[in-house]
Amino acid sequence: MIDLRQAQTNDAAELARIQVNSWLAFSHIFSPEYMEKHNTFERRFFYWMGLLERNVDRTYLIELDGMPIGYVTIGFPREENAAPDTLELTALYLKENYIGQGYGAYVMRRLFTSVKAAGYQRLTLWVLKKNRRALRFYQHLGFVFDGVEMTLPVPGAILQTRMSKGLS
User: What is the pTM of this model?
Assistant: First the structure.
C-alpha cells in the first residue's frame, strides 16, 4: 500500500539516500564533475537537515508498505508574480527501481486532489529540458509548457522549462 507521510528532520538521511539514488538518472545531463561534487550523501543530508529545520515547503515521504521509496515536495511558487491560487511541485523523486511502476502517477493524482481541496487551482513545476522521461510523465498527467525557461547556474548551460496544470 502506498502512503504519504510528512517528512521530519529525522528523515533527512532517508531523503538524502533517495535523492542520491534518483539523481543517477541525470548522469547523462550533468557533467561527471558536477555529479561527483553535488550528488553525495553528505551534501544531500545537510541540505535536507537545513530545509526541514527551516520548515521550507512540505516534503512527503512516499512509502510502499512502510518502506520509503521516494518523496514529493510542494510549496509556494518561487516566482514573485505567481497567482495566489498556484502551488509549485519542487520535487518528485523515486528510487531508481521504483520508476515506471505507476507510483509517481498515483502520488501525483493524490496531490492534485489534496491541492484542489485546499483551494488551489494551478500547479507548476520546473523540469530539465533534457529529461525526456520526466517531460513525457508530466505531459501524460496533463501538464503543459507555458513558455518560460531558465538556465541553471551550473557548468554546461542546462535548461529548465516550466510546466503547469489547471486543477479544475
Answer: 0.92
Q: Which long-range contacts (CB under 8 A, 24 or more apart) does 132-135 make?
A: 133/25, 133/99
What is the structure's pLDDT at 156? 77
> What length does the chain have?
168
Q: What is the 3 state secondary structure string of 48-61?
A: HHHHHHHCCCEEEE
Please tell me whether residue 123 adopts helix, strand or coil conformation. Answer: strand
Domain ranges of the chain: 2-124
Predicted local confidence at residue 153, as pLDDT: 83
Whole-angstrom CA distances from 40 to 13, 25, 128 are 12, 14, 20
* Residue 91 and residue 71 in contact, taking contact as beta carbons nearer than 8 Å: yes
CATH: 3.40.630.30, 3.40.50.300, 3.40.50.2300, 1.10.10.10. Which one for 2-124? Answer: 3.40.630.30
What stretches in the chain show pLDDT beneath 70?
none
Beta strands in 17-158 (DSSP E): 58-64, 67-75, 86-94, 122-128, 144-151
pLDDT for 13 equals: 97
